[in-house]
Design a protein that fits this description.
By secondary structure, the chain is an alpha/beta fold. The chain has a single domain (4-262), classed as 4-Layer Sandwich (Metallo-beta-lactamase, Chain A), CATH 3.60.15.10. It has helices at residues 47-58, 79-86, 96-106, 181-192, 219-225, 235-246, 255-262; strands at residues 4-10, 15-21, 27-31, 34-37, 44-45, 62-67, 76-77, 89-93, 122-124, 129-132, 135-141, 150-154, 157-159, 199-201, 216-218. The radius of gyration is 18 Å and the shape is globular.
Length: 286
């Protein structure tokens, strides 16, 4: 079956979120919703997530799932806001536990924080199938960018997180904790094994000057045109390219605030005795 897909673009971080729905049952899933955040003022905003909520209501959709393709390092998740507004169970790949364990040490998170994925309603495993109305959503573990990265295959569409970008941009970096260029190569080969007309939806687009935003591409296009990894690219060549390129990259501007929120399933840190939530900035550590 072919789902109905609506994209939502958050320009400050080049992020893309989606609502995927079954046109017959009006059941839906929200994928990778974004909470706006200013690193300068420390203020959050729900403008992009509000667009999702307004669309869900205008289309009379019932949200079954809020799905995260991974714990994003460049934007905060709006999963909690979306759930408060329109419902849905929050799910992420089971690899989140390893991500939580690593960053719990970075941020010195003690009890009540636990690195067991319990902040999410469900942890998804490779090959698992969940339902969105009459649509089946199959989970494909695609680690390499992060250890918790998953792809969500729904009918003839696949939501690939940061594993792939548009062909003229390439593939994800692999230098985050749990990342591995060899693993990413194997994960992308899984995606390249899908039918050539499968539509791949990106989690980001960073269009070069003169190109409009794009968020959808076929498997066949990626195999023939991706500037980092084509259908015939050798594993060793890709790994060498990826590791050399990653060594030149700066950390994402929002990695420290984003990970503190995203490993909590979109919850902000608990408010202190003045009613205010605070984010930590570890000094001289990363």
């Amino acid at each position: 079956m072919t789902p109905t897909v609506r994209h939502f673009h958050y320009q400050p971080t080049g992020s893309l979120a989606y609502v995927v729905s079954d046109r017959d049952t009006r059941r839906a899933a929200v994928i990778d919703p974004v909470l706006g955040f200013s690193i300068v003022s420390g203020r959050t905003d729900t403008a992009c997530a509000r667009e999702i909520v307004d669309y869900v209501r205008a289309e009379s959709l019932a949200v079954d799932w809020i799905l995260e393709t991974h714990a994003h390092a460049d934007h905060l998740s709006a999963a909690q806001f979306v759930r408060e507004e329109v419902g849905g169970r929050i799910a992420i790949g089971r690899g989140i536990c390893a991500v939580q364990s690593h960053f719990a040490k970075i941020f010195n998170l003690g009890p009540p924080f636990r690195a067991d994925g319990g902040q999410f309603d469900r942890l998804l495993a490779d090959g698992e199938v969940i339902e969105i109305g009459r649509l089946e959503c199959r989970v494909i573990e695609t680690p390499g960018h992060t250890s918790d990265s998953i792809t969500l295959l729904i009918g003839d569409t696949a939501f690939v997180g940061d594993t792939l970008f548009m062909p003229d941009i390439g593939t994800a970096r692999c230098d985050f904790p749990g990342g591995d260029a060899g693993q990413l190569f194997e994960s992308i080969r899984k995606l390249f094994a899908l039918p050539g007309d499968t539509r791949l939806f990106m989690c980001h687009d960073y269009p070069p000057e003169g190109r409009p935003l794009r968020f959808e591409v076929t498997v066949a296009e990626q195999k023939s045109d991706n500037v980092h990894l084509k259908g015939g690219t050798a594993r060793g060549d890709y790994v060498a390219m990826r590791e050399k390129r990653d060594a030149t990259l700066s950390l994402p501007a929002l990695i420290l605030p984003a990970l503190q929120v995203n490993i909590r399933g979109g919850h902000l840190p608990s408010a202190e005795n003045n009613g205010v939530s605070y984010l930590k900035i570890p000094l001289d550590l990363l």
